[in-house]
Amino acid sequence: SRRRGCGGYGRSHAAPGRMLAQQQPWSQARHELELAVTLQPASGDPRRMVADAARALARVDTEMHDSAAAGDALLTALKLTPEKTDDTFLAAELAEGQGNYSGAEQEYKKILAADPKSIPAAEGLGQALLHEGKFSEAESALHPALLLEPNDPTLLAELATALAGQGNKQAAIPKLEALHQQNPDQPAITRMLADLLS
C-alpha cells in the first residue's frame, strides 16, 4: 500500500514534528505530526511510534485551542497503546475546555484512584467540582491533598471557595487570610477575601 511504501518517510516527519512542537511554531508542527500519524514507520514499533506522534499532535491541537482535533488525536493514540497518566490529564483538560466538568471530574478521579497523592489531580478535581456547584464534594476531595500540601495556594483557594459556597464564610475567611499573607500581590485573592469580609 502507499503507506507501507513511504515507511521511512513517516518517521522523518515525527521527529521534526515533535521538535517543532517544543519550539512552538504550532501550525508547522501540526503539519509534520499529522503526516507522521498517517504514515507507517519503516522500523521500530510502529504502533508506539504512531501513538507518540498522535500524542504530540494532541498537545499541539490543545495549544491551538482545537479541542475536537486534540480529542481525535488522543483517541488515535489510545487505540494503539495503553492509556498513560498524561493522557488522562489531557483528557480532563480537553473536557474542561469544552465545559464538560463532569467528564473532567471522572478523569481526575481516575488519576487519583491510581495515585492518591497527585496534587495536580486534586487541584483539577476541586476545580471541576466547584464548576459543577458540588461544594461539599469539593471540600471532601481537597482535604487529603491539603494534608500533603497545607500551603498550596490553589488548594487553599479552592477550599475557601468550597466553604463559602456552602455558606460557611467563617471557615473560609481564615483560609483566604493565610493565602493573602502568602500572596499579597495577587488581586484575585484580595478580591475573594474582600468579598467574604464584606
Topology overview:
Blueprint: H1 2-5, H2 7-23, H3 26-38, H4 46-63, H5 67-80, H6 85-97, H7 101-114, H8 119-131, H9 135-148, H10 153-165, H11 169-182, H12 187-197
Helix pairs in contact: 2-3, 2-4, 3-4, 4-5, 5-6, 6-7, 7-8, 8-9, 8-10, 9-10, 10-11, 11-12
What descriptive keywords fit this protein?
single chain; 198 residues; mainly alpha; 12 helices; 0% strand; disordered N terminus
Whole-number mean pLDDT = 81
Query: Structural class of the secondary elements?
Result: mainly alpha
**SSE pattern:** HHHHHHHHHHHH
What is the makeup of the main sheet?
none
β-strand number: 0
Counting DSSP H or I runs of 4 or more residues, the number of helices is 12
* Percent of residues in beta strands: under 5%
- Unreliable sequence segments: 1-13
Task: Report how far apart the termini are.
Answer: 70 Å
Oligomer, anyone?
Answer: single chain
Offer a concise description of the structure:
This protein has 198 residues and is an all-alpha fold. Helices cover 80% and strands 0% of the residues. The model is unreliable at 1-13 (pLDDT under 50).
Could you walk me through the main structural features you see in this protein, from its secondary elements to its overall organization?
- This protein is mostly helical and about 200 residues long.
- It has helices at about 1-5, 5-25, 25-40, 45-65, 65-80, 85-95, 100-115, 120-130, 135-150, 155-165, 170-180, 185-195.
- The model is unreliable at about 1-15 (pLDDT under 50).
